[in-house]
Design goal:
Layout lengths: L7 H15 L11 H8 L3 H13 L3 E4 L3 E4 L3 H27 L4 H13 L1
Helix pairs in contact: 1-3, 2-3
GO molecular function, one term: DNA binding
Protein name: GntR family transcriptional regulator
Organism: Kribbella speibonae
């Protein structure tokens, strides 16, 4: 499950974010405790707690004292908006710059995208 590309706590946070975006975790749904998460994935509980703390700081999870962690009511929309912004900044904008540099008109890009969606 975990790889060496980034710290495990960030991978934990990313996995939970993916589960929220895909709908595997719903808004106001309780998530595993840090201890359950640590035991299930055989990692240090402090590492799991750091990933969960990051999600709380980002407004993706919230704590109910004595009960556990839950998905924030607006988490899915928040994450989708952030991913859309990143998609345009990281994928679309560089693609358009490259297309302009090599002389591909925007109408050709749009036509290609439309034909891809029809296939």
């Amino acid at each position: 499950m975990f790889d060496d590309r980034s710290p495990i706590y960030l991978q934990i946070a990313e996995q939970i974010k993916n589960d929220i975006v895909t709908g595997a975790l719903a808004e106001d749904e309780q998530v595993m405790s840090t201890n359950q998460y640590a035991a299930f994935y055989r990692i240090n509980p402090a590492t799991a707690a750091k990933g969960f703390a990051q999600l709380v700081d980002d407004g993706v999870l919230y704590k109910k004292r004595g009960i556990g962690m839950f998905v924030a009511p607006n988490a899915r929309d928040l994450l989708r908006t952030g991913r859309r912004d990143s998609f345009f900044a990281d994928v679309v904008d560089p693609m358009i710059r490259e297309a302009k540099a090599i002389g591909i008109p925007l109408k050709d890009i749009l036509q290609h995208i439309r034909s891809y969606g029809e296939a």
